[in-house]
Amino acid sequence: MRWFALFRIGLAPSPRAIQALVVMALVALLIGAFAPGAWTVAPAAGTALLLLVLVDGWLAGGLVAFDVTVPRDGEVGEPLPIRIEARLTRTAGWTRPSAALAASPRLADGGRIDIALDWAEGMWRGTSEPAPMRRGTGQIERGWLRWQGPLGLAHRQAVRDVGADVRVWPNLAPARGKALQIFLRQADFGRIARAIRGAGSEFEAMAEYQSGMDRRRIDWKSSARHASLTAREYEIERNNQIVFAFDCGQAMCEPIGGLARIDRAVTAALTTAWVALKAEDRVALFGFAAKPLVMSPFITAPHQFRRLQEAAAALDYSAVDANFTLAMATLATRLQRRSLIVIFADFTDPTGAELMIENCARLVQRHRVLFVVMRDEDLDDLAGAAVATPGDVARAVVAQSLIRQRAVVLTRLRQAGIRVIEAPWQSIGTHLLETYLAIKREGSIG
Question: Which CATH architecture has domain 9-23+37-169?
Answer without folding.
Answer: Sandwich (2.60)
